[in-house]
Amino acid sequence: MSFDVLIKGGWVLDGTGAPAFRADVGITGDRIAAVGRLTGAEAATVIDAPGRHVMPGLIDCHAHGDALVFDPEVQLAALRQGVTTFVLGQDGLSFAPASTPETFAYATRYFAAVNGTHPSADGPLSVRELLAGYDRATALNTAYLLPHGTIRYDVMGAAERAATPGERAEMLAHVERGLSEGAVGLSTGLEYAPGRYADAEEIAALCAPLGGLPYVTHMRGYGALAGTGMAEVADIARRSGAAVHVSHYHGPAATLLPLVDQARLDGLDVTFDTYPYLRGSTILAMVALPSWIPAADTDRALELLESEPVDWDPELWPRITFSHVPGAEWAEGLSLPDAAAKAGVEPGEFCRRVLIDTRLEAGCVTARPDEGPEGEESVRAILRHPGHTGGSDGIYVGGHPHPRGYGAFARMLGRHVRETGDWTLEQAAVHLASHPARRFGLAGRGLIRPGHAADILVLDSETVSDRATYAAPRTLATGVDDVLVSGVPVLAGGELTGATPGRALRP
């Protein structure tokens, strides 16, 4: 027997939830050719794996690598955790479909602190063109959700109202075209502009063509408001018949999990992703701007910030740490009160200046009210739920990002398997690989099985650990030194090989 790559003597976690078994894995081209005791087999590349676990590549169900997936630092951060696929187009805002330069510019500018600036694309841009740009240009696979906010802006601009029937029909045409070009679902960001102005009727109409692909939502409320958010999710699911997937589902488990369980008992197909941290990260404008300032209209928002008094919420200030402040990078990593004190102004005035000077581009890490022991117990309970899939919500923009992009999956494999026992390794492979592959229609992935794509990691379960912290967020994880994507080694000895076999995945 001869293979291109042979992984010898590891404990295989095949992604079905079955117990690990000792086996070799032979790979030919981009596919797994054989799994078993491959005595006498030869290969051009041999990876010795005794004492380590061989797992299907992990799928990050919520990543903001839309522009930065091309960055080798981001690829290394993901691969060192065993992540081989990013699901992009999250929170209703990304680069395509944009039929005009204005739409592309809006999506880029408004979410610059989240998605970054695309290194080569410009508007107009179709989903087909965006996916073609990812294909074989990075070490990671990419899958793409149609961003509702981008589509809405393309049709309605910054309008703060319900869509007309004609506008809904035009948005629906965008969705149908995007699905035909390879999108794996539709996303909304109902706390961001312009998605926040859509009602359930509009969203349900756009979900109608999804078939088995998911409607993925940053809900209208989390934590104490999760009941309101989930009621709307259920309404949209009933109206459209779509499967639904809730992004970064965080808050008190005693409140959140019964909402999911009830929806599933009612016959709705509901899953969710979450990351194992208590702090969040987003754009400063979403957290700080009062609702009367039109965030979707940057020029008007800046005009009002310059001319009108703002009644800021002072209880917010201690919860904000700057992650991205272009032009004032010295403030990155500082809390808002500390940065304001260093600048010699009041916190509200400093917030106003940052929003104006960055043209609403600033990003931040935010402490949530549920931080503390009870919050940690909620994280653990949410991870254990069968509807859970792994997502980092990784944001890689700025000098001091949230550590989740560099540590979420390693933290789940280390702390939540080895230390707390929330999962077995067999369960981790389901939550982080096979379940996400099913959810996003990625057939032939997420399992170690002959004929499946050879996206594979080799894991040292005794040493895997996240090392990224809020103080040092760009610190790489440990415990994953060898990773293959489409049968090609992309991480060897813990370092990038320079290969870029990542595919733009289509359902």
UniProtKB/TrEMBL annotation:
SUPFAM superfamilies: Composite domain of metallo-dependent hydrolases (SSF51338), Metallo-dependent hydrolases (SSF51556). GO terms for cellular component: cytosol. It comes from the Bacteria. GO terms for molecular function: hydrolase activity, acting on carbon-nitrogen (but not peptide) bonds, in cyclic amides; hydrolase activity, acting on carbon-nitrogen (but not peptide) bonds, in linear amides. InterPro entries: Amidohydro_3, D-aminoacylase_insert_dom_sf, Metal-dep_hydrolase_composite, Metal_Hydrolase, Metallo-dep_Hydrolases_sf. Residues 46-211, 296-490 form the Amidohydrolase domain. PANTHER family: COLLAPSIN RESPONSE MEDIATOR PROTEIN (PTHR11647:SF1), HYDRANTOINASE/DIHYDROPYRIMIDINASE FAMILY MEMBER (PTHR11647). This is N-acyl-D-amino-acid deacylase.
